[in-house]
């Protein structure tokens, strides 16, 4: 069994953080390892777990992953808004796509270990742990300025550019049904320049980001429905036809649309 809950960030972090979240995995005695499917969501997360292993950042995902949990695990985490994680990780995000990076490598061992110890060395509530994470995020820009080289400071600051964020807003407003060429023209840049900046600051190409946005819209539209009209769902979510919808379910969930509606393991 997994208990998952999301929490809104503090107002100071709301422009950059989509949510903070917790997950408690508690397998029943003698049960098989718990598995859950994680779909691409166009976000970057940092996870802290009570396993003793270092915290880690998970980059943008281009396909689903199945996460097994053989024993009890408690997780507290932060999920960044698209285009905002670079401000807190200090690296271009295209190198983190479909990867994970240990937080000590990004923040330095001293800062990462200090937060890890504060989270797990004594008994705290979930809200208390999340408050510690928020305090660390609020102090990160100053910490980074002190420890990073001049080149890496420039790289970190470049993550704050407005071009990629403007593109993210446009793609999300269109539900993913937006081609890159007209988007670049609207923003007054070449397609190549937009793709390069978007990759560094968001972690995916604009085209892939748009496809995942559209897929997430379709997945949300059918969740909880037993027999959806797939052709109608495709039209509603901006797909050219039903075959394109099926392709996205295959690419991003590794399932047919019908299989997607079944519980994991069926």
Could you describe the 3D structure shown?
It is a single chain. This protein is an alpha+beta fold. It is built from 12 helices and 8 strands. It has helices at residues 85-89, 103-107, 109-120, 126-147, 150-158, 162-173, 180-187, 191-202, 206-222, 230-236, 242-253, 257-260, and strands at residues 2-7, 17-25, 34-38, 44-49, 56-58, 65-69, 73-80, 100-102. A 6-stranded antiparallel beta sheet has the order 1-2-7-4-5-8. Strands 3-6 form a two-stranded antiparallel sheet. The model has no long low-confidence stretch (mean pLDDT 89).
Layout of strands and helices, then pairs:
Layout (H helix, E strand, L loop, with lengths): L1 E6 L9 E9 L8 E5 L5 E6 L6 E3 L6 E5 L3 E8 L4 H5 L10 E3 H5 L1 H12 L5 H22 L2 H9 L3 H12 L6 H8 L3 H12 L3 H17 L7 H7 L5 H12 L3 H4 L6
Low-confidence stretches: none
Total strand segments? 8
The proportion of residues forming helix, as a percent range, comes to: 40-55%
Number of helices: 12
Order of helices and strands: EEEEEEEHEHHHHHHHHHHH
- C-alpha geometry: globular
What structural class do helix, strand and pairing data support? alpha+beta
In this structure, how is the largest beta sheet organized? Answer: 6 strands, antiparallel
């Amino acid at each position: 069994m997994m208990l998952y809950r999301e929490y809104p960030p503090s107002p100071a972090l709301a422009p950059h953080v989509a949510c903070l979240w917790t997950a408690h995995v508690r397998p029943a005695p003698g049960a098989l390892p718990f598995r859950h499917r994680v779909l691409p969501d166009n976000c970057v997360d940092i996870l802290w777990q009570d396993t003793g292993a270092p915290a880690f950042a998970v980059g943008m995902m281009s396909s689903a992953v199945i996460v097994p949990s053989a024993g009890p695990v408690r997780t507290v985490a932060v999920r960044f808004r698209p285009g905002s994680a670079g401000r807190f990780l200090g690296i271009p995000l295209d190198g983190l796509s479909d990867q994970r990076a240990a937080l000590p490598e990004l923040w330095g061992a001293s800062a990462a270990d200090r937060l890890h110890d504060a989270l797990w060395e004594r008994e705290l509530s979930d809200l208390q742990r999340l408050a510690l994470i928020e305090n660390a995020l609020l102090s990160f820009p100053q910490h980074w300025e002190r420890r990073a080289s001049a080149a890496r400071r420039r790289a970190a600051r470049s993550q704050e550019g407005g071009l990629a964020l403007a593109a993210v807003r446009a793609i999300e407003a269109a539900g993913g049904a937006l081609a890159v060429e007209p988007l670049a023209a609207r923003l007054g840049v070449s397609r190549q320049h937009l793709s390069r900046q978007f990759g560094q600051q968001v972690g995916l190409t604009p085209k892939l980001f748009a496809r995942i946005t559209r897929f997430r819209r379709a997945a949300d539209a059918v969740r909880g429905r037993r027999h959806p009209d797939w052709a109608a769902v495709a039209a509603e979510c901006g797909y050219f036809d039903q075959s394109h919808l099926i392709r996205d379910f295959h690419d991003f969930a590794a399932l047919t649309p019908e299989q997607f509606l079944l519980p994991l393991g069926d």
